[in-house]
Amino acid sequence: MTDPTNPGTPESTNPGPTNPGPTNPAPTDPASYPPAPPAPAAAPYSTPGAATDEDPGRMLGIVALILAFLVQIAGLIVGIIARKKSKEAGYSNGFATAAIWISIVLMVLGLLLAIALIAGGAALFSGITETCTELGSGTFEVDGVTYECP
């Protein structure tokens, strides 16, 4: 409130507003704002094929080692790829080398087992065929074994 005898001056008994507000109000024109700070510098990109601290074929070598026991041909192929990637990066990949050797050994053992089973089956079949040829057509029991010959 103002004093009627002295217009424009506040009364000394009126405390007035406790917070008169900012002395410099915010500009309403966007052009009057200060410029934005510069953006932070971007991290440098590494070039593809650049040397890093990690062996690029290590994870493939581990996968190849697991595959070497389950699917030997896949373990062999992935092992060769992993070893090649590691060698190009200048690393020695023991997992990939082990996967290659284990795949080869297990494939050879599997091949020998398949040959033995085929040979055993052929011998068994030829034995049955020979017995049926001697006995003729019908059902026969020889030494506790029953033969049904056509």
TrEMBL record:
<feature type="transmembrane region" description="Helical">
    <location>
        <begin position="94"/>
        <end position="125"/>
    </location>
</feature>
<feature type="transmembrane region" description="Helical">
    <location>
        <begin position="59"/>
        <end position="82"/>
    </location>
</feature>
<keyword id="KW-0812">Transmembrane</keyword>
<keyword id="KW-0472">Membrane</keyword>
<keyword id="KW-1133">Transmembrane helix</keyword>
<feature type="compositionally biased region" description="Low complexity">
    <location>
        <begin position="1"/>
        <end position="16"/>
    </location>
</feature>
<feature type="region of interest" description="Disordered">
    <location>
        <begin position="1"/>
        <end position="52"/>
    </location>
</feature>
<feature type="compositionally biased region" description="Low complexity">
    <location>
        <begin position="42"/>
        <end position="51"/>
    </location>
</feature>
<protein>
    <recommendedName>
        <fullName>DUF4190 domain-containing protein</fullName>
    </recommendedName>
</protein>
<feature type="compositionally biased region" description="Pro residues">
    <location>
        <begin position="17"/>
        <end position="41"/>
    </location>
</feature>
